[in-house]
Amino acid sequence: MISSKSYMIPNNSIILIGPTGVGKSTIARAIAARHEITLVDLDLEIEKLTGSPISWIFDIEGEEGFRNYETIALEKVLSVKDTYILATGAGVIKKEYNRNIVKNSNSCIIYLSAKPKSILSRLNFKNRPMLQNSKDPIKTLEKMYYDRTKLYESIADFKIKTDNSSLNSVCSKISYIIRNNSISKTKMK
Fold first, then answer.
1. Dihedral sign, CA of 63, 123, 175, 44?
2. Contact at 8 Å (CB) between 9 and 107?
3. 121 phi and psi angles, rounded to 5 deg
4. Disulfide-capable partner of 111 in 67, 159, 166, 185 (CB 3.0 to 4.6 Å)?
5. Distance, C-alpha 132 to centroid of its chain
6. What are the pLDDT digits (tens) for 36-95?
7. Measuring CA to CA, which residue among 126, 140, 134 is closest to residue 54?
């Protein structure tokens, strides 16, 4: 299901937001390949910026330190005026500043949503510092989901529910958005 606000995509970029484990990175890779555009993964940009793995940043500097690097990497990515698809981390929307710069980026913001039960069925906890360090990862995931849903919705131009959807199905919905929302046909093949 796609729900949307009326929207035009002026700078030919797409930003995927949503909870951990919803498939942002996987979907972004598939869309980048399908439409021959640049893939940007914010977690990888943070690792490039710091020279350290995300798990190390969380272990040494905590969530606050990680969120500060996340903001710096986000600013850097959004300053590039090119065609790309950006897979964000799930918590990028926690800071009001980040929500504002994403919303004001003139990018198409797509919220990939899924219920916690769906997410749990596809999640690898060992690569998720917020869940790996939790005494009760399931409760932590549910809390993150309920705390963040309104934040995702507040900046999204489109919402795609990914529960029980295949990768191809979600990518087809995003491709439909690309084709029908003024994305340059020369940049988005």
1. positive
2. yes
3. -70, -20
4. 159
5. 20
6. 889 999 999 999 999 999 989 999 999 999 999 999 999 999 998 788 999 999 999 999
7. 126
